[in-house]
């Protein structure tokens, strides 16, 4: 009787989650399948690997030893699978998209293949079904990407969203502007809100924030090229990254209270070729690049100085 890789994965999932239910959810299998794999592992190991109680499953000394060996074996297997082929990364439209190829290759020390995420596929699904080893994607509070078994998230950056308005319009000016004030100006000037089709639930998120603030507003989706033209014409208010470069005829304003926040995260498979140390290294490179890219504009640097409590890079 021999142990198979699936039995080792069950042992590690039990160590990570502390319960049969949690291990089953992480691996995407049934609880009876977890129990059977554990019994098989214990028969081969020659003793109990976990003590089960009211608070879950705790590894025995033998279980800790088997888990350590299992982690080494599975790590080696993952690296072996990656040998001779590039790591597959994917990216949704975001500030770091053009930099991911260089940063990932430098951080991971191996060949990297980066592709744009399909518009109709959730980023976490690409990781869950093996189409990508990791995905860099953005989402919003209350509109996060779903949690899937085996897929982990490592935050890279949190940024407030500013708004782009016409330079000669009623919403232009200096300092922060409240959503309610902006909504009043928009209503009197026949402005509407706009978002670009980034595939990241931005429209639903903006509507949600406006509704919670008691603001009834129309939100239209326009392509990237058209969006700034409409802003300059004074027809739309467009949420943008705070590091957006200045454009002729367009002014950027910060929002009081930071009601709009976008999070950039790295999603990766726990049992894939990327080890936690690889993810941390890549995440640090991406966070540094985000700082350099977004904080290059004087407006955002001034805003950060006035908001010292703001943490652009969240805890991993």
From TrEMBL:
Record-stated family: Belongs to the LysR transcriptional regulatory family.
Signal peptide segment: none
Keyword annotations from UniProtKB, A to Z: DNA-binding, Transcription, Transcription regulation
GO molecular function: DNA binding; DNA-binding transcription factor activity
Stretches assigned to the HTH lysR-type domain: 3-60
Record-linked Gene3D superfamilies: Periplasmic binding protein-like II (3.40.190.10), Winged helix-like DNA-binding domain superfamily/Winged helix DNA-binding domain (1.10.10.10)
InterPro entries (UniProt xref): LysR_HTH_N, LysR_subst-bd, WH-like_DNA-bd_sf, WH_DNA-bd_sf
Protein name: LysR family transcriptional regulator
């Amino acid at each position: 009787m021999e142990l198979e890789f699936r039995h080792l994965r069950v042992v590690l999932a039990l160590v990570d989650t502390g319960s049969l239910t949690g291990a089953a959810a992480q691996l995407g299998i049934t609880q009876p399948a977890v129990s059977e794999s554990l019994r098989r592992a214990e028969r081969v190991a020659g003793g109990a690997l976990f003590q089960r109680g009211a608070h879950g499953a705790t590894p025995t000394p033998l279980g800790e030893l088997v888990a350590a060996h299992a982690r080494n074996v599975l790590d080696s297997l993952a690296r072996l699978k990656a040998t001779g082929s590039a790591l597959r990364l994917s990216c949704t439209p975001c500030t770091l998209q053009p930099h991911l190829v260089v940063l990932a290759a430098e951080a991971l020390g191996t060949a990297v293949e980066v592709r744009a995420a399909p518009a109709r596929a959730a980023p976490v699904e690409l990781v869950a079904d093996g189409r990508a080893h990791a995905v860099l994607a953005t989402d919003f509070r209350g509109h996060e990407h779903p949690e899937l078994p085996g897929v982990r998230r490592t935050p890279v950056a949190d940024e407030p969203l500013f708004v782009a308005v016409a330079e000669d319009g009623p919403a232009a000016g200096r300092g922060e502007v409240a959503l309610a004030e902006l909504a009043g100006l928009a209503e009197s000037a026949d402005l509407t809100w706009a978002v670009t089709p980034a595939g990241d639930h931005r429209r639903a998120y903006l509507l949600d924030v406006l509704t919670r603030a008691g603001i009834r507003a129309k939100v239209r989706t326009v392509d990237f090229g058209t969006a700034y033209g409409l802003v300059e014409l004074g027809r739309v208010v467009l949420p943008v990254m705070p590091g957006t470069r200045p454009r002729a005829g367009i002014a950027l304003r910060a929002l009081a209270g930071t009601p709009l926040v976008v999070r950039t995260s790295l999603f990766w498979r726990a049992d894939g070729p990327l080890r936690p140390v690889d993810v941390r290294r890549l995440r640090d490179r991406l966070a540094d690049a985000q700082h350099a890219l977004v904080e290059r504009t004087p407006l955002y640097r001034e805003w950060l100085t006035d908001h010292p409590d703001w943490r652009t890079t969240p805890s991993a």
